[in-house]
Amino acid sequence: MKKRMRNLLSVVLVVTLILSVTLTAFGADTNGIRVQYNGSDIALTEAAKIVEGRVMVPFRTLLESMGAEVTYDTKTKTIMVKTDEKEISFVAGGADVTVMKEGVTSVKKMDVASFIDKKLSRTYVPVRFIAETMGYSVGWDKGNKTVVIIDPNTLFSNADTDFSIISKLMKSDLDLEKPYATTGRFDMDIATFASPDSIIPGIEFSMTGQMSGIQQKSNADMVINMAFQFDKMLSKLTVEEKAMMEPMLGMFKDTSMKIKMDGETGITYMNSSLFSALDPTVGSNTWYKMNMYDTYEDMGIDLKSITNMSYSDFKLSEILAASLAGMEYADISTYQDIQSTYLFLKNLIGDEAFTKKTAGSYVTYNLNLNQTSVLAALAKTALSEGISKDSLDLTELGDMLNSSNLEAKIMIQEKAGSLYKYELEGDCTFEEIACSFDMTGDQKNTEGQFTIEQKDVMKMMVEVESNVSETSTPPDLSLPADAVIKEYPIY
């Protein structure tokens, strides 16, 4: 537990103090395999079975434990499942599952077909497939031989009201059915440092760039121009090393990339001078093709759904639920960990943490974050979770707090109910990692500076600026007449 806590603390300060002490109840042992739903074990009436690497359990126990209404037609052997959001049905012993959601019907095929155990008079179904079809996230705790099922919609059901203020930063009143011209620039300085016994030298370079293009919904026609500077790195090389490296680095001096993406299909085309520099057989008229949605789906991320959310009525609850999609691994404390983290963040940056000031049609929300506010949020979370003082490792907690620091200010101002402007600034350190940020903007303009540094490992500084304006010209997704299309190599 302590190892897990130390790892997560690097991301969310000391929030995992709460997570590491959460207790999980266990149900009856059924052949050593358990199924957990929203943090509680399902009391399986019959032992789970492993078929072709999949955990199979009796359908009724599983589905009713997850709140579904289940009926069974003895004549047709059809199992019908109904929830508030969808209806699914399948024939006992079959693999095809009919799903109806919002009036749309689709058919899916189980990765392992259901089967009837005649001796037990039970129909077994694959847990992961059925749970994911119902819209739940599923993970496998190998050590505890437990299938972990989480209903993200229940877990994050109050997110839109608990975090309505901070969510204003992600909402837009722009009519995203219309096309918008986007322009921007960025400057980056990146350095990595070699350790004393490393045979690989440190890398140090700068990059400047400009971006322009047109977006409409998730369709995009963009051009990015980049210029790399390696002077600092080259100055530290010997004459021989410099002579060898300079020609190779020269190809990065001025590069450009054109990107055309169809937001409906995910098909994306890319053309860049860098491709030709890296591979002389690639002509300047070559466009690499890839399906962006398929690429992210292979990583367990439903990019299309997330992208669609960006131009629909934004809901934080949906974004958080989508973040759990494709969950492969989990442990028996995952649900409680997420629940406690959510509560900690609600106490730290939820609506009740902000101060509010109204002046005419302007409403300003302010929040100052520091070690004191972090401790207060932790204490409040611990009390609400029923965690006793005796269960806390106060020595380790004190060491962690002493090695970290947080100072941040958040200002969000709205006018007549719409975001008017925002200002975010702060510094934070944890052990040997330090970062800072300073960001200002409104619904159409953004300026920001970010730095992150890990002592003796790396340092990065970034400046960004972007502007969005309405245009009458839609994005051009067509390719030049002489374009040569190649599938993007996936290694």
Write the layout of secondary structure elements.
Layout: H1 2-12, H2 16-20, E1 34-37, E2 40-41, E3 49-51, E4 54-58, H3 59-65, E5 69-73, E6 78-82, E7 86-91, E8 96-101, E9 104-109, E10 115-117, E11 122-126, H4 127-133, E12 137-141, E13 146-150, H5 152-155, H6 159-162, E14 180-192, E15 203-216, E16 219-229, H7 231-234, H8 239-250, E17 254-261, E18 267-272, H9 273-278, E19 286-291, H10 292-297, H11 303-310, H12 316-323, H13 334-349, E20 355-359, E21 362-369, H14 371-385, H15 394-402, E22 404-415, E23 418-430, E24 433-441, E25 445-454, E26 458-470, E27 484-487
Parallel strand pairs: 1-13, 19-27
Antiparallel strand pairs: 1-2, 3-4, 4-11, 5-6, 6-7, 7-8, 8-9, 10-11, 12-13, 14-15, 14-26, 15-16, 16-17, 17-18, 18-19, 20-21, 21-22, 22-23, 23-24, 24-25, 25-26
Helix pairs in contact: 13-14
Please give a structural write-up:
This protein has 491 residues and is α+β, with helices and mostly antiparallel strands. The chain has 2 domains: 23-160, Copper amine oxidase-like, N-terminal domain (Copper Amine Oxidase, Chain A, domain 1, 2-Layer Sandwich); 168-298 and 354-487, no CATH class. Helices cover 25% and strands 39% of the residues. The protein has 15 helices and 27 strands. A hairpin with a 3-residue loop joins strand 25 (445-454) and strand 26 (458-470). The longest helix is centred in the last third of the chain and has 16 residues, at 334-349. The chain is globular and about 80 Å long. The two termini are 36 Å apart. Residues 1-30 have low confidence and may be disordered.
